[in-house]
Amino acid sequence: MLTNDAATLIERPTIWELLDAHGGILFSLDTGAPVASTDPRTAQTPVDVHLHSARVHGGDLFAALPGLRIDGVEFVPDAIRRGAAVVLAPADRPIAMLRERCEAAGVEPASTIVWMHPRARSVVGAIVDHVHGRPAASLFLAGVTGTNGKTSV
User: Fold this and answer.
1) What sign results for the dihedral spanned by CA atoms 62, 69, 100, 102?
2) Residues near 148 by Cβ (< 8 Å), separated by ≥ 6?
3) Is 25 exposed, middle or buried (0-12, 13-18, 19+ CB in 10 A)?
4) How far is residue 54 from each of residues 63, 80, 81, 118, measured CA to CA in Å?
5) pLDDT tens, 22-52?
6) Do 105 and 77 touch, CB atoms closer than 8 A?
7) Residue-wise pLDDT tens digits, 82-131
8) What ranges in the chain are assigned the alpha helix state H?
9) CB 3.0-4.6 Å disulfide test: which of 58, 87, 118, 128 passes with 83?
């Protein structure tokens, strides 16, 4: 899907393309069953990726990563309420635990996909880069070397 992002046209990847590029397994949050590539939900194109559930908008990807004091899984119901299309979670978090959190918060997870990844924390940066059209690829980097004169330039 082509979107106009800051006056630059970029082609956003679908959820399935993200999975194919970065690995992991997709599950349906309501049933706990794996999601096949033919499932229409995998054709959605996340507009943004967030680590903070309060910043999630319709169609975004929410990365529910563990922190030092609080686990991002605690905020999955809030992200879903705000319209998250997909939740990225560490593979060691049981899908049943995420479903229980939603039920306890009174959130219906019917259309939400959970992307379980064994290295969720280490791939989230690459996923953000991919979702936003790999902007670093078009940056120009220059270095100034030598022993004299750099501080006066």
Assistant:
1) negative
2) none
3) middle
4) 12, 10, 10, 25
5) 999 999 999 999 999 999 999 999 999 999 9
6) yes
7) 999 999 999 999 999 999 999 999 998 878 999 999 999 999 999 999 99
8) 15-22, 76-81, 95-104, 120-131
9) 58
